[in-house]
């Protein structure tokens, strides 16, 4: 685990975007296509605003969310919507997007269909994660039903998450898929999340799911 401190969030966004572009370019030297998994939410938006203009061979890049709320893509809470509006524009509009939710379907009913498209494109080459103050990452929430199974080393690629703290079901990449990424990055802002991360380091993943992916990760922090 490596922690990079930045003087401000703008510098973090620019530097991380450059770093991600370089990793994609390096991966494309040895692979016909590469997979990048990224979070939704407001935190990574400025990173996407810079990364979308990078001179990368985007038509060989597959982009997918780390997790998705089971809502239509037109919904403001849709991760696919944010990724589409902030990342898959400019040069990055040439990338292929792999959604994690089939609109109108029960999440359990569409897992097999989504996994059939996802699994051939694993492992993830470049992974970007966020973390909540409760130490959740993707849609792996402390105490949620099925968390232990989703963190198990033999877990399938996807799991349905129904955390009691959230208003809708979600579909999430599981622990082994996230941790198996070739390059891992975590974005956190503020002292509260920095303190939460420091607590998570010594906690089991069942209590602090972010702990399942900290080995070899680069953490990007700004106030």
Automatic annotation (TrEMBL):
Pfam families, A to Z: Glucosamine_iso
Ranges of residues in domain Glucosamine/galactosamine-6-phosphate isomerase: 7-215
Keywords, sorted A to Z: Hydrolase
Keyword Ligase carried by entry: no
EC number in record: 3.1.1.31
EC top class named in words: hydrolase
GO molecular function, one term: 6-phosphogluconolactonase activity
GO biological process, one term: carbohydrate metabolic process
The reaction(s) this protein catalyses: 6-phospho-D-glucono-1,5-lactone + H2O = 6-phospho-D-gluconate + H(+)
Pathway(s) it belongs to: Carbohydrate degradation; pentose phosphate pathway; D-ribulose 5-phosphate from D-glucose 6-phosphate (oxidative stage): step 2/3
InterPro entries named among the record's database cross-references: 6-phosphogluconolactonase_DevB, 6PGL, Glc/Gal-6P_isomerase, NagB/RpiA_transferase-like
This protein's record includes keyword Hydrolase: yes
SUPFAM superfamilies with a match to the protein in the record: NagB/RpiA/CoA transferase-like
Stated role: Hydrolysis of 6-phosphogluconolactone to 6-phosphogluconate.
Family named by the database record: Belongs to the glucosamine/galactosamine-6-phosphate isomerase family. 6-phosphogluconolactonase subfamily.
Protein name, as recorded: 6-phosphogluconolactonase
Organism: Ruegeria sp. PrR005
């Amino acid at each position: 685990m490596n922690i990079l401190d930045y003087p401000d969030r703008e510098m973090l966004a620019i530097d991380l975007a450059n770093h991600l572009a370089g990793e994609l370019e390096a991966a494309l030297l040895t692979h016909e296509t590469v997979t990048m998994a990224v979070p939704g939410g407001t935190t990574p938006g400025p990173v996407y605003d810079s990364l979308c203009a990078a001179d990368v061979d985007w038509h060989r890049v597959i982009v997918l969310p780390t997790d998705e709320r089971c809502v239509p893509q037109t919904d403001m809470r849709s991760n696919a919507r944010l990724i589409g509006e902030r990342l898959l524009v400019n040069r990055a509009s040439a990338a292929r997007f792999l959604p994690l939710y089939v609109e109108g379907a029960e999440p359990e009913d569409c897992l097999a269909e989504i996994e059939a498209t996802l699994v051939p494109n694993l492992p993830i080459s470049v992974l970007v994660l966020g973390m909540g103050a409760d130490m959740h990452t993707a849609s792996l929430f402390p105490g949620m039903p099925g968390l232990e199974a989703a963190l198990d080393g033999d877990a399938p690629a996807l799991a349905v998450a129904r955390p009691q703290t959230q208003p809708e079901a979600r579909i999430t990449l599981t622990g082994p898929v996230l941790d198996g990424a070739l390059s891992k990055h975590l974005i956190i802002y503020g002292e509260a999340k920095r303190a939460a991360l420091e607590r998570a380091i010594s906690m089991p993943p069942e209590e602090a799911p972010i702990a399942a992916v900290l080995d070899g990760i680069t953490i990007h922090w700004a106030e």
